[in-house]
Amino acid sequence: MREVMTKTMARNIFYGGSLFFILIFVGLTIHSHIYITTTSTASMPLTESVARGKHVWERYSCINCHTLHGEGAYYAPEVGNVMTRWGVIDEPEDAFTTLKGWMEAQPTGVEGRRQMPNFNLSEEQIRDLANFLIWADKTDTQNWPPNDAG
Ligand code: HEC
Residue 63: which residues within 8 A CB-CB, separation 6 or more? Predict the structure, then answer.
């Protein structure tokens, strides 16, 4: 066997290796796409209202205090499963009224409790947020978080 690697061998290893991993990458990308569109979020359609709710979520930087499916800050509760905790996941109207009540009651001013600001959101924004949180809650997260508190 040769002791020295020729330029041709090095080039073949480079191109062959690159192609191999590019194919794996493309395959995994397709798999993720199929998984996301048919399995993980299929039980709740991505409606206009859900999309608007996501914008409200971003515009008011809720993630600066909260986590959503574990992503975000650890100051305030996880909200990826809040609709389940509130028992309103299958009742969009109840989800709306409960969230509205919550948002309007902030800040509670209760001593010793962390405070959430009042964002003075419109009913429309709160409805969209409720739909977004239901949508997020219905995402198949493979049993994460492991407990109700998130
Ligand atoms: C400055 C930090 C902060 C921001 C920003 C914030 N929150 Fe909160 N949020 C809190 C805190 C603290 C609590 C818990 C308050 C309590 O239990 O008294 C809370 C609680 C909640 C709850 C109830 C969770 C539960 O488990 O009962 C919901 C729902 C919620 N927030 C939604 C939002 C939404 C939607 C936004 C963005 C529009 C937002 N929050 C932005 C601090 C924040």
Answer: 57, 71, 72, 73
User: What are the 10-residue block averages of pLDDT along the chain, 150 residues in total?
Assistant: 86 97 98 88 87 97 95 94 95 98 96 95 98 94 80
- What's the pLDDT score for residue 1? 64
End-to-end alpha carbon distance in the chain: 59
CB atoms near residue 130 (< 10 Å): 27
**pLDDT at residue 17, rounded to an integer:** 97
Distance CA 10, CA 82 (A): 55
Pocket of ligand 1 (CB under 6 A): 60-62, 64-66, 75-77, 79, 82, 85, 102, 108, 113-117, 119, 129
User: How far does Cα 1 stand from its chain's mean position?
Assistant: 54
Which of 121, 29, 129, 26 is closest to 79 using CA atoms? 129
Distance from the alpha carbon of residue 14 to the mean position of ligand 1, in angstroms: 51
